[in-house]
Amino acid sequence: MEKMVVQGGHQLNGEVSASGAKNSALILLFASLLAEGKHRFSNVPQLMDVDSAANLLHSLGCETKRDGSNFEVLVRRPKSMEAHYDLVRKMRASILCLGPLLAKYGEAVVSLPGGCAIGTRPIDLHLEGMKALGAEIILEDGYVKAKAKKLKAATFLFETVTVGGTENIMMAASLAEGTTVMENAAKEPEIVDLANYLNKMGAKIKGAGTSVITIEGVSELKPANHTVMADRIEAGTLVIAGAITGGEVTVKDIRPEWIDSLTFKLKEAGFKISITDNSVTVHKNKSWRAVDINTAPYPLFPTDLQAQFMSLMTVAEGTSVIGETVFENRFMHVQELCRMGADITPKTRVAVIRGKPGGLSGAPVMATDLRASACLVLAGLAARGETSVGRIYHLDRGYEKLEAKLAKLGASVKRLG
Ligand code: EPZ
Known about the structure:
Elements: E1 3-7, E2 14-17, H1 22-31, E3 37-42, H2 48-59, E4 63-67, E5 70-75, E6 82-83, H3 85-88, H4 98-105, E7 107-111, H5 124-132, E8 136-140, E9 143-147, E10 155-157, H6 163-173, E11 179-183, H7 189-200, E12 204-206, E13 212-216, E14 225-227, H8 232-244, E15 249-252, H9 260-268, E16 273-276, E17 279-282, E18 293-295, H10 306-314, E19 318-324, H11 332-339, E20 344-346, E21 350-355, E22 364-366, H12 370-382, E23 386-390, H13 393-396, H14 402-408, E24 412-416
Parallel strand pairs: 2-15, 3-14, 6-7, 10-11, 18-19, 22-23
Antiparallel strand pairs: 1-23, 1-24, 3-5, 4-5, 7-9, 8-9, 11-13, 12-13, 15-17, 16-17, 19-21, 20-21
Helix pairs in contact: 1-2, 1-7, 4-6, 5-6, 6-7, 8-10, 8-12, 10-12, 11-12
The structure holds ligand EPZ.
């Protein structure tokens, strides 16, 4: 089993660039199904999840070609509208091919994605939205079987803010008859990136990035070219890597406002942060205070940075209370951090971290999910001695060349096995 071995105690200093955003690239690839022809993307990260998305597109009759971070998709009419379980189970975001297939071809058979380590991950709001647009939805044999002669616009209120639900309905409504209004929509930057790409394809979407999004349906969309936005979660992870080692790290090619909630909390903890229009720098710091965070939808503190921030709090001065309001089981990293000497009491959706500067010691630990694996690498950077993070394939789903980026900043990390 491949693992990452980290020697703690090295201060990270220097500059590093954020790659393209996993949580935008995946959705953009599925959105290309809305228009047959050649779509060209740049700044596409080289990640296992992107490979999984490409495999699903291949199963739907598309051809893809990658050249570095450039990625071409040739979309053709699929022979079958089925997204098979074997492909969907590898990457839950595959459910996001439902909206495009249903809107473009009037039918879609997509495997139910099932849960994952961090939660049950239901898709009820995706399906409610499709029904509101006039689709007939049947759940059978572990699949969503959806049909619709022609989707019809609707006004739809999301009971819970859902990134994927907002994206699926936005894509479906772009080819529906009439004007759809989505209320309580997700406001993540990835939603704006998707709307920008769809509008380049000829869609008429307004309000992306706010909680009310209006989609005036059109009869046809055309292939388009698009540059994927930078990965704000990777950028935040790299900023925390600098912070936890007390070094000075600048993350480039990122819009600072995308991680405002993180930098606000770092400043509250006593870090000096400076920004330009496309970079964030955390400055050298010998000690920092414990601060409380609650995860919530954008623009509040992102759940995808909760584990990484917890690592930082384990070696802060004082006690931090971390609330995880988005997912019901996103503390899988807590026990592994405790094996490294952290003093954490996890409750349901809340964890109390009694920080102790220098309190982490290296140990063999196990990654359980994508962001937990990043959190354990960060803890390893600050721990005394060696930390080996097992099941590191979790990390490869969402971080492009992380060990090379950390090594460039002065970390001692290597991959074994
Ligand atoms: C996206 O997942 C991201 N994934 C997640 O990133 C991220 O953690 C999450 O948004 C929240 O920001 C991608 O973009 C590919 P949600 P998504 O629908 O869309 C509930 C990572 O580490 N809900 O916004 O699946 C759900 O249970 C991953 O990169 C319903 O109840 O998240 C959760 O409690 C992990 N019914 C809440 O909404 C639904 O139909 C937010 O989930 C849909 C969601």
